User: What shape does this take?
Amino acid sequence: MEWPGLFNYWIVIFLMMAGLYVVMARANLIKKMVGLSIFQASVFIFYLTMGKVAGGTAPIVIPGNPVYSNPLPHVLILTAIVVGVATLAMGLAIIVRINEAYGTIEEDEIDQQEHDS
Amino acid sequence: MITTHLPALQIVVPLVSAPLCVLLGKARLAYALALIVCWAVFGISVLLLGQVLDNGVISYRLGGWAPPWGIEYRVDPVNAYVLLIVAAIGALVITYAKPSVAKEIGSGRETLFYTSYLLCLTGLLGVTITGDAFNIFVFLEISSLSSYVLISLGQDRRALTASFRYLIFGTIGATFFLIGVGLLYQATGTLNIADMANRVALLAENRTVQAAFAFMAVGLAVKAALFPLHAWLPNAYAYAPSVVTAFLAATATKVSIYVLIRTYFTIFGPEFSFEVMTLGPVLMVLAILAMLVGSTIAIFQDDLKRLLAYSSVAQIGYMVLGLGFATVLGVTGGMLHLFNHALMKGGLFLALGCVFYRTGSVSIEAMKGLGHRMPWTMAAIVIGGLSLIGVPLTVGFVSKWYLLLAAIDSGMWWITIFILVSSLLAIVYVWRLVEAAYLSPSPEGAPSGEAPLVMLIPTWVLMLASVYFGVDTRVSVGVATRAAEFLLGAGS
Assistant: This one.
């Protein structure tokens, strides 16, 4: 397969690594959640890519003899997207509570406060 | 008629009842509902285990769609056993919960607690019962999301940061698992575990399958808090409400270990996991490190919930060590320890919940003289502690005995040294507790008196069970051996 054929997978790997790096390297909790979302999004793209058949169309009955894409991974990832949204909402809700309790959402300042108490 | 639908009821009953708890609105009604539901779920799991032991594997087709296209619930000797453990702990902990929840979580949020609890139970049971790889991910996230809520209900503000950290770790772990499932789907074109297992067997040299294995193994190791991926566990256990700690410690990591077992032995098969991917040495080294490091750190903890949390890290090491042998004896030891640890750790955290209920603290300071002030609670803690060490006549001894046998049987007698050293370290941290409780005088004006009976009875049920199964090993060893033989292909 020629070079652009694996283009999507390179994007997946790039986003996955970028997301994980943001989660690890950033001290700001919101930025961590953003990184986590990027990481999850990379997996969504991964699933979408693997179901796609070049030149394939949506799996509906149409006359002729069309090539269909595999709809199953797309449906699966719909579920995973919902899970991702729930995780993001949950994370942000906890961040709001952390901000109320500590007055900051910077990880190093929170660690400092926990260490002092 | 209804008995054919038991596998679906096992999941649907708690799932549907969870939102009802919020709608009921009153803490007392929500508690009553959760109590009935949890015991019903326990009853279902007992019936399921009976059916499996009598008639063999149950395959339930959700919505009537035949596998591998539809989602299949598959109950075999392995997960019927895990279902029973999870449901039994779930029922006992909810029985205990009322006074503890009222005190630690506070009015207004109690109904939310019962809802999250039922959802978490649904997720854990779902992970265990399902025969569909993607379905495992979905249930894993249901249980994880609800356990983040449960942990963040803790009184200490550090519960929030612990919950957030668990959320980050848990999501990364679950997403790794999802990547693994995706890669496997690419290679095999199926999501049904039984179907997948047949096809993976022919693809041992396939790079995609090997990558899938690596992603799933790492992702699940995070969820199971296998050393060195345990960083989320100590704070989450230490700052969560007592009830939540007892429930999660006895079930959540166990279910993750169960999924690890499924992945290693059923999906990929022992040959692929332990010969092609040479998983054995990796697991054993990590397990031994977990045993030694976990026990050592536990010695220096002043907060007893933290102490027991680090001890859990060590005990997870024992379970994984058993799996690492990949022999019937080793896996029996691992499965047995899964059951036994659920009993003793569940009981210990419940007992600490009693202490917290009465004294408002679980530091080693608060334990001083507790042997005289709360004799029944403290006696339960001592039994649990003896079991952690592995004293004969307790369950801890039985599973360690099988691990020792497995080590000698595999010709790796030097592993027995590490098991013994780790047990010696356990003596040190359990002794610290006993010394404070029995040999130190009570501080002036310390609160005295037992926790309510509704809290003491479930604690003692678990403790007596841990003594009973330490003496009469026929049932527990029998079921664990059958499960191990099934996993290693001897009994299928």
